[in-house]
Amino acid sequence: MPGAKIGLKVGGSTSPSYGAIFVVTFSAETLVSSSDNNSVLWLDVLFGGESPNPVSDNHRFSSAASSAEWSSHTALRIIRFEPQFNQKDVTAQVRVSPSDNIGTAGLQNWLLKVERYNL
Fold first, then answer.
1. In which band, very low, low, confident or very high, does the pLDDT at 71 lie, cut at 50, 70 and 90?
2. 28, 42, 46: which is closest to 100 by C-alpha?
């Protein structure tokens, strides 16, 4: 699952539109555990390498517990690309980062959905 992506383009005459707003929803069941109960699983979705909104250095997707249980989590991100004549690759790609002291980390039954609103 890490690295899951959906190919997207804006601008130029061959893409669906010159500009767009993308709304991405990522949902998954997670299992995260740590002996010190202070670990997290960070997750974000990048668009052509750019961070969507909300922007933060601390996108906690799931937090650790001493006795790990599967739980469901959802993240929503939004990004806008202004109209442009040159075509640009804005592929949506999931980035998952476990903290250093995580004991167990798992994702299952995940869904990556991108909605496009042309400008």
1. confident
2. 42
pLDDT at 66: 66
Lookup: tokens for 58: 């601390």
State the SS3 of the chain. Answer: CCCCEECCEECCCCCCCCCEEEEEEEEEEEEEECCCCCCEEEEEEEECCECCECCCCCCEEEECECCCCCEEEEEEEEEEECCCCCCEECCEEEEEEECCCCCEEEEEEEEEEEEEEEC
For the stretch 9-62, pLDDT in tens is 999 877 788 999 999 999 999 888 877 767 788 888 899 989 888 776 666 788
Average pLDDT, the chain: 85
> Are 112 and 6 within 8 A, CB to CB?
yes
- Residue 89 to residue 50: CA distance in whole angstroms: 11
